[in-house]
């Protein structure tokens, strides 16, 4: 099979899988939030509400696409696509299973894989901050300024929590990092790094309790207040796809990727990967149902005065231990 | 080779757009395109680590700060104020120096002896040009002095900016302003609570 055909087929399959998981992650979140608040959640469209995502998609497509008069037309229309593009392009390099005899479970195997994920992730902020700025009204502007500050601050601690894993694995390739966890998952030696990563990942995806970017009690809907119809839908997809992405990264870096726990190898590695990612997704929904939103100044203080020094300390200790034990 | 010419065209076009854009935000977006293209150009030269760092540092951090400042100052909505066009007066010397620089560049490039082609193989493995491992090793052994010197220069620049831009405050004044800020926050919380 020529390379371009292989890449094309894999991309189409992956797009379908990711979009479907987005649709049902959204439904699952509404259901789980419902159950945690002692109500049924969406249950009208189809059996157990299973067709709700299709109904939502139809609604968003048929809604009018408004552009405010004060908006900057070009950037206003461009911003949702930037969000979506950066959210999806990460999946080009995420491996879902062990590669064997020339067949890989990833579209591309990049040697600087984990760095590339950081790079693409750092571009995701443009969709939000340009979208909020280009809307030309005050709530989106406040939301976007907040998001910029928040994402830059938490990205630092996040990158530092990656470096501990890199030192242990001795490689930046995602395949290599997972293979290095065949014996011990990195969550054990890097539990501080893992905790820091999980916290910063919530902040990076702008979800509760770090959803100050939207903060409906003070900013209406934050950066996407002015967006409607399908353009709002694009931001919405990007948020859930980013959630999936950070769950995938947590699985790859700290929870052994497709390695089976307790030698349960009769279940294929890809299934383990999906199970681990699903657990993380549930964890993020659980967080949203449990924790109240942080105040803005406390959020920044927590990022700079707690997470960043802790991540640095974790990095130094890891480096010293690895240097002395070889 | 086709990739190079396409990338070069995009690179120059976005650089020109950065300069001529009417609104500051468009300049930033053009610069973003410029940096992204430059990163792809690095990848075609098999310098993948440099490409990734280009995106993380410049596109992901520095440009975001530009957008942040533009959004915060609100100056992005209005176009740049148009002053008297000073370009006509300097186009002759500027053009001369540009041509001279390009001429020197062409002379230098055409006279340089090509180094041996880098080892081919899986991009990024140790021992292959541009890999993360080799880049890091070079940075912390052979190139350590220039690397640290660059760091020192940046540090001096940061301290300079703080000295020039920061307000001079005595300890008593600083104490007072801290207390004022604390009181404002407490009152705001009380107000929110009542409302």
Topology (elements, then pairings):
The complex is a heterodimer of chains A (326) and B (195).
Chain A: H1 3-36, H2 52-62, H3 73-89, H4 113-134, H5 138-169, H6 174-179, H7 191-204, H8 216-219, H9 229-254, H10 269-290, H11 296-325
Chain B: H1 2-20, H2 24-44, H3 48-73, H4 87-111, H5 132-140, H6 144-165, H7 171-194
Features:
heterodimer; A: 326 residues; 11 helices; globular; B: 195 residues; mainly alpha; Four Helix Bundle (Hemerythrin (Met), subunit A); extended
Provide a concise account of the structure shown.
Chain A is mainly alpha-helical and 326 residues long.
Mean pLDDT of chain A: 83
Work out the radius of gyration of chain A.
20 Å
Radius of gyration of chain B: 24 Å
What structural class do you assign from the helix and strand content of chain A?
mainly alpha
Instruction: Give the low-pLDDT segments of chain A.
Output: none
At the fourth CATH level, what is the homologous superfamily of the domain at 1-79 in chain B? NADH-ubiquinone/plastoquinone oxidoreductase chain 6, subunit NuoJ
- Mean of all residue-level pLDDT scores of chain B: 76
Low-confidence stretches of chain B: 119-126
Number of E strands of chain B: 0
Any idea what the shape of chain A is? globular
Major beta sheet of chain B, specifics?
A: none
CATH architecture label name of the domain at 1-79 in chain B: Up-down Bundle
CATH class of the domain at 1-79 in chain B: Mainly Alpha
Could you please say which CATH topology of the domain at 1-79 in chain B applies here? Four Helix Bundle (Hemerythrin (Met), subunit A)
Task: Compute the number of helices of chain A.
Answer: 11
């Amino acid at each position: 099979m020529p390379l371009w055909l292989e890449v094309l087929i894999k991309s189409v399959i992956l797009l379908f899988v990711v979009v479907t998981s987005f649709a049902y992650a959204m439904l699952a979140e509404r259901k789980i939030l419902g159950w945690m608040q002692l109500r049924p959640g969406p249950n009208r469209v189809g059996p157990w509400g299973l067709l709700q995502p299709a109904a939502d998609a139809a609604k968003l497509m048929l809604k009018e696409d408004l552009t405010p008069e004060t908006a900057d037309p070009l950037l206003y229309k461009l911003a949702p696509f930037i969000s979506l593009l950066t959210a999806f392009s990460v999946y080009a390099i995420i491996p879902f299973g062990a590669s064997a005899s020339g067949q890989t479970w990833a579209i591309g195997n990049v040697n600087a894989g984990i760095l590339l994920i950081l790079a693409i992730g750092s571009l995701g902020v443009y969709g939000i901050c340009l979208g909020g700025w280009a809307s030309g009204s005050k709530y989106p502007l406040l939301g976007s300024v907040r998001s910029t500050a928040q994402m830059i601050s938490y990205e630092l601690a996040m990158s530092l929590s990656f470096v501990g894993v890199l030192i242990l694995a001795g490689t930046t390739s995602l395949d290599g990092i997972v293979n290095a966890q065949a014996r011990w998952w990195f969550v054990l030696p890097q539990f501080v790094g893992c905790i820091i990563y999980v916290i910063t990942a919530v902040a990076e995806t702008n979800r509760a309790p770090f959803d100050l970017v939207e903060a409906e009690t003070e900013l209406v809907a934050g950066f996407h207040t002015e967006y409607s119809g399908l353009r709002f839908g694009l931001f919405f997809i990007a948020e859930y796809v980013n959630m999936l992405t950070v769950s995938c990264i947590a699985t790859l870096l700290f929870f052994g990727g497709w390695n089976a726990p307790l030698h349960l190898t009769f279940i294929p590695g890809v299934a383990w990967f999906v199970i681990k990612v699903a657990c993380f997704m549930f964890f993020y929904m659980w967080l949203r149902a449990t924790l109240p939103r942080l105040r803005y100044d406390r959020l920044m203080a927590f990022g700079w005065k707690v997470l960043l020094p802790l991540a640095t300390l974790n990095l130094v200790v890891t480096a010293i231990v690895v240097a002395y034990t070889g | 080779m086709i990739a190079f010419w396409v990338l070069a065209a995009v690179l120059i076009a976005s650089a020109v757009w950065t300069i001529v854009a009417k609104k500051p935000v468009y300049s930033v977006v053009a610069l973003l395109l410029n940096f992204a293209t430059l990163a792809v150009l690095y990848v075609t030269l098999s310098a993948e680590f440099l490409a990734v760092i280009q995106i993380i540092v410049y596109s992901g951090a520095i440009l975001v700060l530009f957008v942040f400042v533009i959004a915060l100052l609100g100056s992005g909505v209005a176009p740049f104020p148009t002053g008297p066009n000073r370009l006509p007066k300097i186009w002759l010397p500027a053009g001369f120096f540009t041509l001279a620089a390009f001429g020197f560049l062409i002379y230098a490039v055409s006279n340089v002896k090509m180094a041996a082609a880098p080892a081919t193989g899986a991009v990024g493995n140790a021992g292959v040009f541009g890999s993360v491992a080799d880049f890091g090793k070079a940075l912390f052994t052979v190139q350590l002095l220039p690397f640290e010197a660059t760091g020192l220069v940046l540090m001096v620049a940061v301290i300079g900016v703080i000295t020039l831009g920061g307000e001079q405050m005595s300890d008593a004044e600083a104490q007072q302003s801290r207390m004022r800020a604390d009181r404002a926050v407490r009152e705001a919380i009380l107000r929110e609570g009542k409302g």
